[in-house]
Amino acid sequence: MLWVFVIAAAKLLFHLATAKQYGYFRDEFYYMACGRHLAWGYVDQAPMIAMVAAVNHALLGDSLLALRLWPALAGAGVVVLAGLMARDLGGGRIAQAMAALAVLFAPVYLGTDHLFTMNALETLFWALAAWTLVRILHKEEARLWPLFGLIAGLGLMNKHSTAFFLVALYAGMLISPGRRRLAAPGPWIAAGIAAILFSPNVIWQEQHGWPTLEFLRNAESHKNLAMPPLDFLKAQALVLGPLSAPLWIGGLLWCLFATGARRVRTLGFAYLLITAFFLSRHAKVYYLTPVYPMLFAAGGVALEEWLARARARWALGVYAVALSAAGVLAVPLAVPVFPVEQQIAYIRKAGIAEIRTERHRQARLPQTMADMFGWEEMVADVSRVYHALPAAEQARCAIYANNYGQAGAIDFLGKRYGLPGAVSGHNSYWMWGPGDGTRGDVVICVGEDSSDVAGTYNEVTVQAHHPSPYAMPFEMDAPIVVGRRPKFTLREVWKSCKHYI
Questions:
Q1: Model confidence at 226, in pLDDT bands (50, 70, 90)?
Q2: Distance, CA of 303 to chain centre
Q3: Structural domain that includes position 270
């Protein structure tokens, strides 16, 4: 396991070294805002990321390095878990190191482990669940079922899509030799523990009218870009690294057909089931990616067995070098490592088009990088408009943002400019309401069309905005509009402001 820990340490150090390369990501602003409004649920997410944000604020502060320490640790943990799974599936040093190496260089994990979001934690929880199940099925450690339930419950509290993975694992057991396990109490004790841990979020959803279901319906209808099944499968190979495809495909085949994998057929069937489900739902490419560490582990075992039979250890060195070289070349496609113009030039030279998952116009940078730009400029412009108002108007002025990224940036970055907190109709911001009623006679709207503002205010003025050339186009084009002499109060129109997407 020594090489596995070396690889994990390298990943951790890389993410810490690049944590401050650009700026805050739009969702990071939102999660920090959620951390200031702790609840058992949110419109578009489970509650764990907000709790982590609150803990981070209390213990480490809100710097980029502090925030991004969490996904970096999660990513390093996945590397270790891939090696542990390979070991517990019967693999030796080669299997363990190759599984860890594949996780290290997968572009999708490099990207998700760079940002403070639910996605890095999701991969960690899925890998923990898979490893625990390997111990239960392959090592006959039935005493670990309660641990599996604990991991499953925490995973659900991190991201709701964990439910699909858990259902796939249980269904995989049902149609594999592992079905006999379902006759014992262990799996159902685990399910009960997970349900108890997840129940606060379910209760919150019921009490608030199931907002996440409304959010998902709207996103599927109006925001997400459907991808044909074949393109979805091709994209899996691309985001994981094309040269790692033989490893995870070999791992899938090993789980399904190898004699030594009979006890863990469940993993292979689970992958097929969850892939079929996501294909049927036209899911985003990255929804499936947390499942692959277990297949990398199985693939490491399959590779080691093949090398032993073929007596071709030389092939291992060739493959490891090629996988590593391709991974290093792909790093700037997933993580900002260069100054921005050099980053753009590198991505263009690579000639690999960004995999689009939403219907927005594309930026010069991939969206995950573009969404780290423009916030300082926007908040500075809002501050200029706000402080140009007479003092009496400032005291009664509300700042309304079109989306949670803008609202979160104003809340976080606006403190140094003396700005009041923002309100917004977007997702959980709508639930937090329009304020205490003392503001709204004057409004500064960010990202709203002047004709929409004119529906609520009699006097409308459009102010200049100086966007970043690297931000997403819909953010670069966001106007700043001042409204005066309201026709209605914010409270009166708040219901119509709701925007779940």
A1: confident
A2: 30
A3: 2-210+231-334
